[in-house]
Amino acid sequence: MLELSQTTVTRPYEAIVMMHSDSSEQDQKDLFRKNKAIIESFSGELNHIDSWGKRKLANPIEKNTRAVYFHTTFTASPDAIHELERTMKINDKVLRVVHTRLSDKMSLQKHVESFKERLADTLQKEKEKEAKFKARKAARK
To answer: What are the phi and psi torsion angles at 52 (to 5°)?
Structure first.
């Protein structure tokens, strides 16, 4: 008889999690402790968690106009994603979660570095755009 190997394939992922703006710091820590335990139970490893703080939502979610954003990267098997999404749907403090599979060709560290660079570039462009807008507004007066 043929015997199938029980190797688990782990892939790199990133997730953006939006939590209620009134969620306490303890609620946030509990969520990510639970997520870490789930990832590790599926032969995965948590790479990093980055908090973006409270931000305005583009569209209200359940009458909420603000949310606390988190960005995280990790490696795990595909089954871990299903379990993570299931547990976060149950949690009332989580508004939205988006998981994205990353390329196997780039390491998670490089991905995080390039992501932060793009984020800084976007922030700089927004500041320049706002400065131009204020200058035009001042010139009109």
So the answer is: -95, -5
